[in-house]
Amino acid sequence: MTENTLSQQTLSAATPGNEPYLVVDNLTVRFPTADGVVQAVSDLSYSLEQGRTLGIVGESGSGKSVSSMAIMGLHDYKRTRMSGSIRVGGKEVVGLSNNQMQSIRGNDAAMIFQDPLTALHPFYSVGKQISEAYLAHHGVSKSKARAKAIEMLDRVGIPQARNRVDDYPHQFSGGMRQRAMIAMALVNDPKLLIADEPTTALDVTVQAQILDLLQELQREFNSAIIIITHDLGVVAEMADEVLVMYAGRCVEHGPTKELLTHPEMPYTWGLLSSVPDVSADTDARLIPIAGNPPSLLDPPSGCAFHPRCAHRDKVPGDLCRTELPELLPGNRGPEHLKRCHLADADSIYEAEVLPEIAPDLVEIVVADTIENGATAGDDQTTPEPR
Amino acid sequence: MFGYIIRRLITGLLVLVTVSIATFALFFYGPSDPALAYCPETRCNPARLETIRTTLGLDEPAAQQYGKYMKEIVTGGSFELGSISIDCPAPCLGVSFKFREPVREMLQERFPATLSIALGGAAIFLTVGVSLGILAARRRGTTADKGIVGASLIINAIPYYLLALLAYLFLISQWGIFPESGYFPPLEDGPIAWIKGMLLAWIILGLAYSTQYARFSRGSMIESLNEDYVRTARAKGLNERRVVMRHGLRAAIVPVVTIFGLDFAYLLAGTIFTERIFGIQGIGLTALDAIGNKDLPIISATVLISAAFIVVANIIVDVVYSVIDPRVRLT
């Protein structure tokens, strides 16, 4: 009964005007603990339309998973303080009870988790776990649900799905388990799919297959995808736009190509610098970001990145330490937002950071700049500094 | 799996042989003389003692007696005790020194009482213990959780015999809240009489054991509710009841099964305090009396049966494991 009335509400409240499918507005998530309040996510805002992919990037503990779990309402209500707004298909989910969330979870929004071995129940067959997800939102017979499970397993590329449907997760390989996980997430045709580091536990070749599969399924189902990762390669491959998180805040947000080629926030520079170059000299040293991620119990004042930032001296006064920069468009148009006090970030990047991380690219950029009459580099011709 | 069970049964048999040898050795090379127990104190003399020894077959070397004992388990035999001859069909566990009856038949007669205690007690402590454990795990840190854990520790700290004795003294003797306890065979005296006689014993046994099960299943449940697959279950949009019972409890119950298998075997082997205090004639009480009477056949039979229960319970637990957890393969 509740399920019916809820889905009706969802329908009647569906997407007023042309609001994007997912809207996160000033989301703040706090976990009160014995040691103090963990400021896991602060003032996070973004939106995502169907058929588009958002990559959320950041270190462990930067709030990327926490913010996505909030969309699914997966935090323990008793131990979490949430404010702000999350609208899924026009329906506000912040403040919904666990019961009210049930009709949204797995149905409107589904999630793929990092390690498919621990995320699948070891005691139930893969088919059973998929059909259980289907049955939770569809009043069909068990045999219909089982047929659906076989269809989904086949759809995600499990060979001989009919024979493998009764296998247990431990009888699947890592890649197959993640495919099964994807089948389970997509069984109810969710309009929003959150993939929390979907390829981290997989080896590289399988990783590529899984990413291809996700893209293919996205074209087919036209779902919105949030892909949470710390792998910039995955982001470059998958995402239409990128959101970089640091210490629970969005520090840079923009279209993928634009952001990866012209990053304007020193933390993003650090992320790009720390990607190892496969073709580089084996003697070449990795360039890590100095220092450690801050404690979210007591994040640094001002810009949370300032203790690790190599460029804070370029900002006049003590601004980085005393004042939190706002998330504002930089010099490169309204689409590209950054949270940084640096005035001419783009030129510092080209002059100081790029030569260090990709010396062979500098010449191209320089040549390109000259060709285009000293305007900022053109997106089409500037290779991604990967 | 079949081969596995056969192999386990064979090793189990070896365990039982070892146990029976140990019992015999303790009895014969220990400090007490069984014949002395059957020699009336006032008229005892060496000649009479010797006669008793011969009658009971205690004059033969221990090894020979053991061989005879083992053989009779398989073939049965007949015993000459003085003037009377007692027939003991296979599997023969000997004839009681004191009661001059085949031990197996005696124990068979007593077993339903012990089984009754074990079944009723286990039904209570499993349901109460595991439900309280689940409740405490889901409400971790709340007053309900602290209350359950605290009460469980307090009850656990009271020695079982004291708890049972006080319950008997006050609830039956003093205040008469519960009917007089005892074993009434349900098939003869009817189930009502059976339940009435067992009620307090079940409750006390169930209460004492449930504390351990509550804490154990609480811990196990907290662990499984934190597993990624429970989060997955929630993310699928399942209702909370299904998440907790089908996904959380299913995994949490595995370690509980292990201790339950062993606990139940111990209960079947005889609940000495319960039987003694509530006046229930079961295996435990029989064994206790036999030790007082230095009645070797009964002692070794009860020890052997207890060991057999534990061996079998272990095998059953392992088989059940493989049924619950598909990752476990018995080879």
Structure description:
The complex is a heterodimer of chains A (386) and B (331). Chain A is of the alpha/beta class and 386 residues long. Chain A is 36% helix and 19% strand. Chain A has 15 helices and twelve strands. Chain A has an eight-stranded mixed sheet with strand order 6-7-8-3-9-10-12-11, with helices on both faces. By secondary structure, chain B is mainly alpha-helical. Chain B folds into two domains: 34-92, no CATH class; 104-324, MetI-like (MetI-like fold, Orthogonal Bundle). In chain B, helix 5 (103-138) crosses helix 9. The longest helix of chain B is centred in the middle third of the chain and has 36 residues, at 103-138. Chain B is globular. The mean pLDDT of chain B is 89.
Considering the chains and any ligands shown, give keywords for the structure:
heterodimer; A: 386 residues; alpha/beta; 12 strands; globular; B: 331 residues; mainly alpha; MetI-like fold; two-stranded antiparallel ribbon; 14 helices; 2 strands
What is the count of structural domains of chain B?
2
User: How many distinct helices of chain B?
Assistant: 14
Strand order of the largest sheet of chain A: 6-7-8-3-9-10-12-11
What is the tally of beta strands of chain B?
2
What is the CA-CA span between the terminal residues of chain B? Answer: 6 Å
Q: Over the alpha carbons, how many angstroms does the gyration radius of chain A reach?
A: 22 Å
Mind summarizing the main beta sheet of chain A?
Answer: 8 strands, mixed
Oligomer: heterodimer
| Helix proportion range of chain B | over 70%
H-E string of chain A: HEEEHEEHEHHHHHEHEHEEHHHEEHH
Instruction: Tell me, rounded to a whole number, the average pLDDT of chain A.
Output: 85
Radius of gyration of chain B: 24 Å
Poorly predicted regions of chain A = 1-15, 373-386
Identify the strand order in the major beta sheet of chain B. 1-2
The arrangement of helices and strands of chain B along the chain is: HHHHEEHHHHHHHHHH
Kindly report the average pLDDT value of chain B. Answer: 89
Number of strands of chain A: 12
Basic shape of chain B: globular
The third-level CATH topology of the largest domain in chain B is MetI-like fold
Number of helical runs of chain A?
15
